[in-house]
Q: What sequence folds into this?
């Protein structure tokens, strides 16, 4: 179990990556946290060993995250739902690919 502490993440989408550079990582899109959290787990998946944050406040509210068949990660933003602060290009689907 993990707790956000003083911050509110408001997790909205979750995916377990099974290939590529994010293999065996738990990916969590957050609305209020406005970031993608990447959880590294121990070998049996019961303990969080590290949490990495990507895109904090870069794309706004992140609604969902999935992994495609090719291993790419897709993130959907949610800034035009009356809760976010949309810019002219919102909303987006962001694709992360292996380098």
A:
């Amino acid at each position: 179990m993990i707790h956000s502490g003083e911050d509110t993440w408001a997790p909205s989408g979750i995916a377990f990556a099974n290939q590529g550079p994010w293999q065996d990582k738990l990916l969590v899109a957050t609305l209020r946290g406005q970031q993608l959290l990447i959880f590294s787990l121990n070998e049996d998946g019961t303990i969080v060993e590290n949490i990495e944050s990507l895109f904090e406040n870069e794309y706004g509210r992140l609604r969902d995250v999935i992994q495609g068949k090719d291993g790419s990660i897709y993130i959907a933003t949610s800034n035009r739902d009356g809760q976010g602060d949309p810019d002219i290009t919102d909303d987006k689907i962001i694709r992360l690919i292996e380098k």
About this structure: The CA atoms of residues 58 and 98 lie 20 Å apart.
